[in-house]
UniProtKB/TrEMBL annotation:
Protein's cellular compartments: Endomembrane system
Domain Palmitoyltransferase DHHC: 155-279
Species annotation: Tagetes erecta
Main subcellular location: membrane
Chain spans, region Disordered: 354-373, 396-418
Record's bilayer topology term: Multi-pass membrane protein
Enzyme class: transferase
Catalysed conversion reaction: L-cysteinyl-[protein] + hexadecanoyl-CoA = S-hexadecanoyl-L-cysteinyl-[protein] + CoA
Any single GO BP term: protein targeting to membrane
A Pfam family recorded for this sequence: DHHC
Protein name: S-acyltransferase
TM spans (from-to): 48-69, 81-102, 199-223, 244-267
Keywords, sorted A to Z: Acyltransferase, Membrane, Transferase, Transmembrane, Transmembrane helix
Low complexity: bias regions: 404-418
Organism taxonomic ancestry: Eukaryota, Viridiplantae, Streptophyta, Embryophyta, Tracheophyta
Length: 418
């Protein structure tokens, strides 16, 4: 008695795996220049190294302050107030670093790309259409939308294949369209947009307060030395070189982060972005987004932050590989290394001769003259014929001075030789 066994599970499973597309996380197929951490939970810009630099610029002076200034002031104040000097600066430093990470490690408001461009809407008037031909449609580069009763122009993004919403711009560094794009900050390594502008301003303003705090207590320590030893302020400074370094460092830093804080206070009060302000967009026209000072501050600090339009941990199928190309009735694998397009011309070197003749490898002579009065010829190199799958042949007609160059790649194509 013969028993027919069922097919093995491994064989059938292998066939199903070939038909089932491979699933990847969204961040693994991301087309922008961003860098992801912890499985797509944190998204940074391509210049993530600047984040670590900013952390060092914050932590290093605070560590020096705690070791050489705050530690000396612990016993100089009654009721353990000296301990608060060190505790406050440590807690405040952690707060500033958290704001930095919340600014640089979250989605700033990236608009998802379209897989295909939108359908054309208007006819391209620049191209004449003959009778019997279908008019060519094109995408308008600019559209007009109404915002608070005013006309605002929005542009089409060729990279993301979409019309950018109002106040949206494409960041060339991160290669993304960002809602309410303010600028790309190199110090936080991220775009500043609708979803992280609040944290960016809080980071800059908190860093300013931290610099003022360290600057002030460095001077307090210098004055305590001056009064305790009954000496001049210059001699007191010499006794604490760490305070001198911190005073200079924080003084220069306040000009930078403090200046940014004041500038962005102006932008918030007028409801502008840095990008709009630098382009002088509202110098001659009214700002359609201005809601008054109170309304503008409320929009930034007392409105809920919209959810991200991207789920970086969602499972998406891997994009299929491009199909093989068909050439001369046969399939050609697209993964095969392509011969550079300039191989044909790089191996055809111009040869200037005294006589107005051009001789090829087969001995055929074709007479040609240039417009400059000098004779020229193009001599086919013998090593071209050694290229696999490429066959060159010269054919000149006897009745004229022009000929054709035949190129065979699974077939033959005639290219006129001038």
């Amino acid at each position: 008695m013969h028993v027919v066994h069922p097919p093995k599970l491994s064989d059938t499973a292998g066939d199903d795996d070939d038909d089932t597309p491979e699933l990847l996380r969204t961040y693994q197929t991301w087309k922008g220049s961003n860098i992801f951490f912890l499985g797509g939970r944190f998204i940074f810009g391509p210049d993530i190294g600047s984040v670590f630099l900013s952390v060092c610029l914050i932590v290093a002076p605070v560590a020096v302050f705690c070791a050489f200034v705050a530690r000396k002031l612990i016993d100089d104040f009654a009721h353990n107030l000296g301990v608060l000097i060190m505790a406050v600066v440590i807690v405040f430093t952690f707060y500033v670093i958290i704001l930095l990470l919340m600014t640089s490690g979250r989605d700033p408001g990236i608009i998802p790309r379209n897989a295909h461009p939108p359908q054309p809407e208007t006819t391209d008037q620049g191209i004449e259409v003959g009778p019997g031909h279908t008019p060519q449609l094109r995408l308008p580069r600019v559209k007009e939308v109404i915002v608070n009763g005013m006309t605002v122009k929005v542009k089409y993004c060729d990279t993301c294949m979409l019309y950018r919403p109002p106040r949206c711009s494409h960041c060339s560094i991160c290669d993304n369209c960002v809602e309410r794009f303010d600028h790309h900050c190199p110090w936080v390594g991220q775009c500043i947009g609708r979803r992280n502008y609040r944290f960016f301003f809080m980071f800059v303003s908190s860093a300013t307060l931290l610099c003022v705090y360290v600057f002030s207590f460095c001077w307090v320590y210098v004055i305590r030395i001056m009064h305790g030893e009954n000496t001049s302020i210059w001699r007191a400074l010499i006794k604490t070189p760490a305070s001198i370094v911190l005073i200079i460092y924080t003084f220069l830093s306040v000009w930078f982060v403090g200046g940014l804080t004041i500038f962005h206070l102006y932008l918030i009060s007028t409801n502008q972005t840095t990008y709009e302000n630098f382009r002088y967009r509202y110098d001659r026209t009214e700002n359609p987004y201005n809601r008054g000072i109170f309304g503008n501050f409320k929009e930034v600090f007392w409105t809920s932050i919209p959810a991200s339009k991207n789920n970086f941990r969602a499972l998406v199928p891997r994009e299929p590989k491009p199909p093989p190309r068909v050439t001369s009735g046969s399939f050609v694998n697209s993964n095969i290394e392509k011969v550079p397009s300039d191989v044909e011309t790089s191996n055809m070197k111009p040869v200037w001769k005294n006589e107005a003749t051009a001789r090829d490898d087969s001995g055929t002579v074709g007479r040609r003259r240039s417009s400059l009065g000098r004779s020229e010829s193009w001599e086919l190199q013998s090593d071209i014929a050694s290229l696999t799958g490429i066959e060159y042949s010269d054919r000149f007609s006897r009745g004229g001075s022009s000929g054709s160059l035949g190129v065979s790649l699974g077939g033959s194509v005639d290219v006129p030789v001038k």
